[in-house]
Amino acid sequence: MNRLDSILAPAQGYFELGLFNDAWEELDKLEPKAKAHPDVLLLRLDILLALSRWEDVVTMGIGCCSTWCDFDGFFLKTARALIHLNDFGHAYNLLKNAPESLHALPEYHHEVARCAAKQGLRSEARNALQECFNRDKSYRLRVLDDPDFEAVFG
Q1: Distance between CA 92 and CA 90 in Å, rounded?
Q2: Which of 35, 49, 68, 100 is the most exposed place for a label (fewest CB within 10 A)?
Q3: What is the distance of C-alpha 132 from the center of its chain?
Q4: Cα separation of the two ends of the chain
Q5: For residues 81 and 45, what is the distance between their CA atoms, to the nearest angstrom?
Q6: Residue 136 near residue 106, CB atoms below 8 Å
Q7: How far is CA 42 from the centre of its chain?
Q8: Structure letter (DSSP) for residue 98
Q9: Model-level pTM greater than 0.85?
Q10: Residue 64 to residue 29: CA distance in whole angstroms
Q11: Spatial contact of 74 and 45, defined as CB atoms under 8 Å apart
Q12: pLDDT by residue (tens digit) across 11-52?
């Protein structure tokens, strides 16, 4: 276990137990340099997502995407918050500008498809879904029951 892992362990433990405020307080105890580490910031975003604090995720996430533009986790988490806020255009643009490493994940293509579908970009949504299915066939079942994709297949 490296130094950062041992520093983050208490906060991650609280997070996994669903004690989100306690997890946040543990992160607040870190020294300033550690607080700015991308792994700490990603955990903070996870906490905010778990608390459904969408606007806070977007505010923090946009800054993290700018500062840590090679860390794909910031893009996906921020896009998910934007989707919860029904800001599909902003989420779509954020994902399209995400690091190439994110494009290997089926959830990336799934969220691109969702944003495209909600904007009426049916062809783009279909292409993104096909890429998602190529990477993980289990997404087919998720899409069938998801009302966000009705327009794509209608």
Answers
A1: 5
A2: 100
A3: 16
A4: 51
A5: 10
A6: yes
A7: 9
A8: S
A9: yes
A10: 20
A11: yes
A12: 999 999 999 999 999 999 999 999 999 999 999 999 999 999
